[in-house]
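Hi all, long-time lurker, first post. I run a small reading group and we've been trying to get comfortable going from sequence to structure in the token notation. Rather than ask abstract questions, I figured I'd post a concrete chain and ask someone more experienced to write out its structure so we can walk through it together at our next meeting. Sequence below, copied exactly:
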Amino acid sequence: MRHCLALDLKDDPALIAEYEACHRDVWPEVLSHLRVHGVRELEIFRLGTRMVMLMDTDDAVFDPAKMAEAERGNPRIAEWEALMWRFQAPTPWTPEGGKWTPMTTIFRLTDANPRDHD
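-- Answer (accepted) --
Happy to help. Here is the structure in token form:
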């Protein structure tokens, strides 16, 4: 399944540069954590301070609640999340206490119904 989530960065060019540097050298424990929990592919895109994450998951394995519980129980993953929160900020639409927020699909080409336009 594909998930699309949004999050903002703090509006500070030095922090944004450091955030991007962290993602050029993601800790092995973080990569392993993602894979173990059924994340097949993950991409993060940025425009200004807005970020969009596309995440493809194996539905037989992926469970957001179990993944969050495992994050809290793993000191190294919790350390990464705390480090990332130095750079991140919730979007205006993020629920209180949330981070990456699911976006709503409004169009999918494969589902589009072609119509004649006169």
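A couple of things your group might point at:
The longest helix spans residues 13-24.
The mean pLDDT is 96.
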